[in-house]
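Q: Sequence in, structure out?
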Amino acid sequence: MQRPQRPSPAATDRGARIALLFALVAQRLDSYYEHGQELTPAQGAALAADWLARSRRSLTQEERLHLSRLSDDMARAMRSTLSREAGLFTAHEMMQALDPNYHSELARTLMVECELLLDAE
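A: Exactly. Output:
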């Protein structure tokens, strides 16, 4: 019986960054559409630190701020093209998709966009 191969640490770190970017965009959209608030880069970096700590991972403050700024750019770009109703739906879908048992085609598409955004760096 073959053992499943473990992903390389680089792939795991990359995946974690993609997932973290997605989660930050989701939180930014949710805060904006549900509460009328925009997160600052520092608030996004603090959220990232909390989420990373739960999975016993870490990134430098500089890396967390970078991801926070990228998430802000992506969220603003999305808000500029979405109606309020579409924005509420998108934020809801993304927040639900933070649960790995929730499946959403929209969330999968946005996760790919997060991956492309990181790859463009």
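The first helix runs from residue 9 to 35.
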